[in-house]
Design a protein that fits this description.
single chain; about 200 residues; Serine Threonine Protein Phosphatase 5, Tetratricopeptide repeat; 12 helices; globular
């Protein structure tokens, strides 16, 4: 998986997550059992769920298990909690897939205007700007992503990619180091970090 595949994960996922209410259980016994079986995370805030997932991600030594945790984190980020925002993101995804970038930017601009605290709106727009070669605008959106969620490893991968492509290898190295503090088992990130460290060492000798 390349650096930009991390960064572009959300953009490439075109399925819209629909958020509905839990069905009512008719029988009291079934309701009691459901309550007992329910994970405690059902009663936590999104921030608490993310904190728990990031703790698990940092300490998980199995790369495949860690990938599953990272996917859960991405799903948390993608959950806007708003049907309107979800629809705008779905339209943006479709426009990107059809290479209608101007329309996609309009949808993402509107999603950000309606919910400026929704991290995935900024992240997807950063990804699209990168795809269009607008590195300055992409970095501006990445910085906003990281202001909202400093642990956004996708945005850190995007930052590393931009820094590397613009010749700022030391800053790219720092971005990968931060990435691996959050997601230590990611092999491509390890490889990118190693390659940059070797390159910089060669430049200093």
């Amino acid at each position: 998986m390349t650096a930009m595949r991390f960064f572009m994960f959300s953009t490439l996922c075109l399925s819209l997550v629909l958020f509905g209410s839990t069905p009512t259980v008719a029988l009291a016994q079934t309701a009691d059992k459901a309550s007992m079986d329910a994970s405690s995370t059902a009663f936590t805030t999104p921030a608490e769920r993310l904190d728990k997932l990031f703790t698990e991600l940092k300490h998980e030594e199995n790369p495949d298990a860690a990938r599953g945790i990272a996917d859960q984190i991405r799903r948390e980020w993608q959950d806007s909690g708003s049907a309107t925002i979800n629809l705008l993101i779905q339209w943006a995804d479709k426009a990107i897939a059809e290479e209608k970038n101007a329309a996609a930017l309009d949808f993402l601009d509107e999603a950000i205007r309606l919910k400026p605290g929704y991290v995935e709106g900024w992240n997807r727009r950063a990804t699209l700007h990168f795809k269009m070669g607008n590195y300055r605008k992409s970095m501006s959106d990445i910085n906003q992503v990281l202001r909202i969620e400093p642990r956004h490893f996708g945005a850190l991968a995007g930052m590393a990619a931009i820094m590397a492509q613009t010749g700022r290898d030391e800053m790219a190295l720092k971005a990968w180091e931060k990435f691996l503090e959050l997601y230590p088992t990611e092999r491509q990130a390890q490889k990118e970090l190693g390659n940059l460290a070797e390159k910089l060492t060669g430049q200093r000798t």
